[in-house]
Amino acid sequence: MTAARSIPLLDLRAQHKQIRDEIVAEVTRLIDSQRFILGEEVAELERQVAGYCNAAYGIGCASGTDALVLALTALDIGRGDQVLTVPYTFFATAGAIADVGAEPVFVDIDEDTCQMDVEQVEAALNRYPRVKAIVPVHLFGSCVDMDPLLAVAADRGIPIVEDAAQAIGAEYRGRRAGGMGAIGCFSFFPSKNLGGYGDGGMLTTTDARLAERLRALRVHGSRRKYYHEEVGFNSRLDTLQAAVLLVKFRYLDVWTAARQRNAERYRRVLGHSPAPVRFQAVPPFVTRHVVNQFIIRAPGRDALKAFLADRGIGTEVYYPLPLHRQPCFSTLGYREGDFPASERLAAESLALPVYPELAEEDLEAVCAAIRGYYAG
Q1: What is the DSSP letter of 204?
Q2: Rg (Cα) of the chain, in Å, rounded?
Q3: Quick check: 54 pLDDT over 80?
Q4: How far, in Å, CA of 275 to CA of 164, rounded?
Q5: How far, in whole angstroms, is CA 232 from its chain's centroid?
Q6: Contact by Cβ (8 Å): 277, 270
Q7: How far apart are the first and last CA of the chain?
Q8: 14-249: CATH number
Q9: How far apart are CA 67 and CA 172, in angstroms?
Q10: In the chain, which residues fall in CATH 3.90.1150.10?
């Protein structure tokens, strides 16, 4: 059975249609200028994003993955070190740790909030004495409970790198994601709330020394052209992407408000129906959830996903296999059952369409289909 019209998980064409003329004008101007590498648009986007995140400095780079690699490199994390993070996240979080030669070690998530279970951190640090950094992930547009995490990290002199790839504008007790740790890392992948027309990333920090080193690392470790104090990377944010993102940045808060309204509608409609679904909890310390994804926990998740797909409704599983069970990390020695909350979420979570342009009648159709599935 197919719906009268399909409802995609994400409709980037609808967003582009609203701003096409502005985008075309900016891209055309930039092409005519022929200034493509670290142009003034990159510097302006860095300034605006840093300010938005309550950080002093922004450093554009080629992707959110590169942001994590650059951050860990700037903190001198490398071979022989361990980095603490969670197994329930996109692969890049742990992949970046491995990329710099370090070993990812995990603590489980709180299955209600989907965020790092901070109560497990101190015991993990005692168990893994080679941990030299902690990477909390502000997953799905929410925030980790940062104050106790910052406290235990400060007691041990361990820096925090915030993986805020999905959380631009999210707030913890009124403080913005990416502005609380030593370095914040953002992604401008097209599916993000602030997404480019290709890959892109950003780092934020309040530390002038780290900012200077990050700027050098992204251009082969060079502070002065053709002079290299260390081996860095080729990881610059394209000026074309910065020009696109500057246009989209003007709409970010409006789009976020629309995502929040859609999330609230789901909670209201599905929460008052017999459908046995659960929602990501939003604890009081999360003062702004920016809803990069709207996640439900659904019994019989895979069958529900297939049922919705048959009716033209797009969904996605974030994430079907936790990182400790990924084949490439088998040598770390983890086994099934080591992180039960992450494993339960992997088996039950399903992302529903929540993009800003989602029509109310389409959202109602998604809810009706979910109710229909459980009604039999």
Answers
A1: E
A2: 21
A3: yes
A4: 32
A5: 24
A6: yes
A7: 15
A8: 3.40.640.10
A9: 21
A10: 251-375
pLDDT tens sequence across 178-230: 999 999 999 999 999 999 999 999 999 999 999 999 999 999 999 999 999 99
Local structure of 135: helix, strand or coil: coil
> Could you tell me the two tokens for 309?
């797909």
Give the span between the Cα atoms of 306 and 319, in whole angstroms.
16
Residue 152, Cβ density class (10 Å: 0-12 exposed, 13-18 middle, ≥19 buried): middle
Domain 251-375 fold is Aspartate Aminotransferase, domain 1 (3.90.1150)
Query: Residue type at 213?
Result: R
- The CA distances from residue 287 to 53, 170, 293, 341, 358, in Å, are 14, 8, 17, 24, 24
Q: Which segments of the chain belong to CATH 3.40.640.10?
A: 14-249
pLDDT of residue 4: 64
* Residue 319 preceded by cis peptide, ω within 30: yes
Residue 3 above 80 pLDDT? no
72 DSSP β-pair partners: none
Question: Cα 192 from chain centroid?
Answer: 7
CA-to-CA separations, 229 to 38, 68, 84, 223, 236, in angstroms, rounded: 20, 21, 29, 8, 18
Q: What is the C-alpha separation between 298 and 362, in angstroms, rounded?
A: 20
Dist CA 172 CA 192 (whole Å): 19
Q: Residues 123-170: pLDDT tens digits?
A: 999 999 999 999 999 999 999 999 999 999 999 999 999 999 999 999
230-269 pLDDT tens trace: 999 999 999 999 999 999 999 999 999 999 999 999 999 9
Contact in structure between 69 and 198 (CB atoms under 8 Å)? no
Tokens found for residue 18:
């609203």
Residue where the block lists tokens 């929410």:
142
Contact of 103 with 332, CB cutoff 8 Å: yes
